[in-house]
UniProtKB/TrEMBL annotation:
Protein name: Preprotein translocase, YajC subunit
Keywords in alphabetical order: Cell membrane, Membrane, Protein transport, Translocation, Transmembrane, Transmembrane helix, Transport
Region (Disordered) location: 88-122
One annotated GO biological process: protein transport
Family as reported in the entry's similarity comment: Belongs to the YajC family.
Residue stretches of biased makeup (Acidic residues): 91-106
A Pfam family this chain is assigned to: YajC
Localization annotation: Cell membrane
Membrane topology: Single-pass membrane protein
Residue ranges with Basic and acidic residues bias: 107-122
SMART domains listed in its UniProt record: YajC
Domain of life, per lineage: Bacteria
GO cellular component terms given for this protein: plasma membrane
Amino acid sequence: MGYEMLIILLIAMIGFTFWSTRQQKKQQQKVQDYRESLKPGTEVATVSGLLGTVESVDLDRDVVIINSEGSLTKWRIQAITEPPVIPAYVSDDDVDEDGNPLESEDLDQKDAIEAESETVTK
């Protein structure tokens, strides 16, 4: 019985190693494809968090020039891994006191109350 368990464990370890290697290769290929698709005007984020727009790309020298709020900076292409992620903005007016989103009826009612209070104060 000891050998069967050892064989099952060994097969599971080999399967996990194969699966994780495939996932890693897929992720690397995705990043490589993104880097090769860079062209002037593309918005990018660097590994260190700099957000900007690509001004020029030199794949032979692995260099990208990024314009970030008027400042031109030179980066190695390996520093760019993905497009910038812009978090969704939720106004404080669209949530209740506990941070839960208001229903559309509640929003309409709240807008009506605000409009009424503005006309009263004028």
